[in-house]
Every structure is written in structure tokens, then in C-alpha cells.
Amino acid sequence: MTQEEIVKASTDPEFLSYLQQREQEVLKSKDIQELYEVLDSLLILDLAEERINKIYETILMVAFDNIELKLKNNKKLTLDDNNDLCYIRAFYEHSVEKWSRDDFKGAKELFYILTQIVQDDKLLDALNINLLACAFNEDMEKFYDEKIDHQQTATEEKYGYFLVHFKFDTKKYLSDNIAKLKSIYEELKPLLEV
């Protein structure tokens, strides 16, 4: 959407009424993909924070519930399944949110859980890098500014929600930090024990 289209949509009573109706429908249906569509619209149009928070909280609830089900059934999530992608996105965004508030322990735990339930090598490497950054108490903004390759864009749409491009060789970095990563995995292993 262009800036002009955004301004027009945000002042169009018919569209705003439709969006509000849609918002109520998705809050009832709890369809993760539709919840994200509404959330993205609310964010683009910069609408009331309470509405945004309500949708986001519902997204987290739906994602956590479905991830818990997958864990109980020993199933991995893939980026090729649209619902799984949304569950991973929600969990990932929540991890980054904790990290940005310097809740390194909480972010580290969530990143660890993601490493155990996601079936995608590229994303898994990125999650492990985030996990290590949290374990080393690296400031999220500094990490983002100094270690993320902003020139490179996601070649596949499924990676568009995740930080997967770094300014260093990811395989070498992970290899150099394998002992620390194993230690973190051992420390956090009880999180998944039932």
C-alpha cells in the first residue's frame, strides 16, 4: 500500500467498519492466519493500541496452545505449512520482544523451544544464533545493528518474518560456539520434559 492509500483507508468509514467487523470475527474463530491479516491491517493503519494488543494476545494464545499440542504429539513445525508458519512467527516475535526488554532468560527459553520444534535448517541456524546472543546477554538493538546483514533480503517469502541473514559465516560461528550451545541445550532441556 502507498502512503496515500493508507491515509485513505484509515479515514474511510466503510472500510473501518468492515475491519472492525472482521476483527470481531477473527477473535471468535481464532484462525491464526486471519488474526495476522487483521493485526497487520491494524498496524499499517496505526489504529488503537488496545485493539492491536487484543489481537496480538489472541495470536499468542492460539500459537502457544497449538505449539503445546504439537509438542505433546512429538510433531515438528514447518515453514511450508501456513498455520505452522504463523505459530512460529508468533513464538519468534514474542522471543524477540522479551530480548528487546533485556529479558535474556525468557528470550533464551523461547528460542530454545523453537530450536526443538522447528524443522528448517536455515531458520534453525538463525534461532541458535539468537539463542547464543541471549545467553551472552547481547543487547538486541546492538546485535541487530552490528550483526544483521540489512543489505540481504529474504529470497523466500517464508523467511520474511525472521532474522536469517548475518554479517558473518553462520556455520563457522555455530561451530566456534558449539560447546556453549550444547551447554545451553542441556540447561534448558527440562523445559520440554513432561
Number of helices: 10
Helix content: over 70%
The radius of gyration computed from the alpha-carbon positions, rounded to a whole number of angstroms, is 18 Å
Biggest sheet features: none
- Give the class from helix and strand content and strand pairing: mainly alpha
Calculate the terminal CA-CA distance, rounded to whole Å. 46 Å
The best one-word shape is globular
Tally the structural domains. 2
Overall mean pLDDT: 92
List segments where confidence is low: pLDDT < 50 over at least 5 consecutive residues.
Answer: none
Q: Beta fraction of the residues?
A: under 5%
Structure in words:
It is a single chain. With 194 residues, this protein is mostly helical. The chain folds into 2 domains: 1-73, no CATH class; 76-194, no CATH class. It has 10 helices and no strands. α2 (13-29) packs antiparallel against α3 (32-44), α3 runs antiparallel to α4 (49-72) and α7 crosses α9. It is globular and about 60 Å long. The relative contact order is 0.08. The mean pLDDT is 92.
Task: Looking at this protein, list some descriptive labels.
194 residues; single chain; mainly alpha
Summarize the structure.
The chain is mainly α. It contains 10 helices and no strands.
